[in-house]
């Protein structure tokens, strides 16, 4: 009679780390018309009129305002597209990104 040792099967789970989120930040300038900023916020970030107005006014008063938080690639794409919309109209409109703490 032979004893067979049965080893329990262990399953290793790979814990996938959530990607770091990045903030999209609207930088105030003294040249881009407020209405245009609101239009860009509504188009690129799918904001309603009221929310877009609040973000624009906050950036105007404080110099910057966090617009939204996304995965890095999405944040960078949206910031670039929004900045490019201003450039096409000849405005110095600027959106930047930075990692969220």
Rounded average pLDDT: 92
Number of helices, where a helix is a run of at least 4 consecutive DSSP H or I residues: 3
By helix and strand content, what is the structural category?
alpha+beta
Strand content: 15-25%
Low-confidence stretches: none
Quickly give the CATH architecture of the domain at 31-99: 2-Layer Sandwich
End-to-end Cα distance, whole Å, is: 63 Å
Which shape, going by the Cα principal axes? rod-shaped
- List the strand order in the largest sheet: 2-1-3
Share of helix among residues? 40-55%
Q: What do we call the CATH homologous superfamily of the domain at 31-99?
A: Ribosomal protein L7/L12, C-terminal domain/Adaptor protein ClpS
As for the CATH topology of the domain at 31-99, it is Ribosomal Protein L30, Chain: A
CATH top level label of the domain at 31-99: Alpha Beta
How many beta strands in the DSSP annotation?
A: 3
Order of helices and strands: EHHEHE
**Main β-sheet: number of strands, strand sense, barrel status?**
3 strands, antiparallel
Q: What is the alpha-carbon Rg in Å?
A: 23 Å
